[in-house]
Amino acid sequence: MQFPSAEFPDHMKTQSLLLRLFVGLTMFLAGAALLHAQSVEVSPSEISAIQGGDRAAVKEVLRRNGVDLNDPQAVRQAVGSLVESASAGVDAAGAAQALEAISSTVVGGAVEAAAETGGDVGSAAEAASAGATESSVAVALSVGADPGEAAEAASRGGTRGASDSAGSADVNGDGTADSRDRDEVVSRTSRGSSEGAVEASVRMGIDPSAMAERSAAGSSRAAVEGAVVTGGSVGDAVRAAARGSVQGASRGATISGLDSASRDQLIRSASTGSSESAIMSAAGLGADALEASRASSSGAVSGAVEEAAAAGQDAQTAVSAAAAGAGAGATRGSEAAGLSAEETAQATEQGAVEGAEEGAAATGEDAASLADAAAEGTFEGVMESEPESEPLPVEPPDVDDGPTDPPSPS
User: Are 252 and 197 in contact (CB under 8 A)?
Assistant: First the structure.
């Protein structure tokens, strides 16, 4: 028996063709990005060593190729090339895990090399993390993996690797090496990861807001994990990560030529990812989740103020976006972690107001108006993200079946 062939409507044929063209173009752009990143020569044995977590191999490749560790663009390209080379052969299922480990090794090696040679460790950390996240997104797209998951994995790995490798370097230039230098590395790495994720997503035609959120989440998670392992301040680490992620999202928007509304949306997304991840990570590791919530909103808002001032943007709008993102993330994070939504919201608002006041002090903006914007923004984010309450059960009305039959005469 022969069945008649199926004939699809013309509009469905057109949609199918457009989808295939879009997928093909995305794969082409991802491949082009990877080819562009190939700027260092690396041997098969060195690739194997990097895949095994050997930072010494990374340092040797950078040294042999003459990479100037004080040149951010050179570091970014070299790290992107190494991440791409070491990722050869990964498949969609294992991409995120592989990219996290590779990013940790490569970024850590670059930061360690900068520290050992007296280079600018903060600049190296920022450039390396941008290159690692950028290439990770391209790798994910080229193998059909989730680019957001790849951005989160690369950010987490890069932040962890940089923090572990900075050692006793005086990163912030205050003449002493202490926990503040570690926090500065976290901030710079988070900034680079966020910027790299946004730039890569815009270039490859995928949603930059989702990428900014996932990248910030990865950085915050690594910040909490690092603080818990080393006995450092979870609040300081989270504040640094949130500040860097928001700054990177804003800078990525500027470099990519996005408008103000898009930039504010990216700020909000980065703040959301940072807040939610910080709360969930802190709760999961037995740290103070309310402290993490407060610190994340503080860092996000202060970073937004500083970036708005530097870019000539409206500071109140930036504060509102960052605070709303923190409120949304706090609501989601507290719900997932089983925490009090009210207490988490209060801590988030306190942090947002503190961040606004800190940002105002640093930039000369009006502290009172920024604090008001922070409080209002937090409330907006919390209200928009609160789960809808279950509808109350409604009792069915009594049904009147009409008059009953009259009694029969006796």
Answer: yes
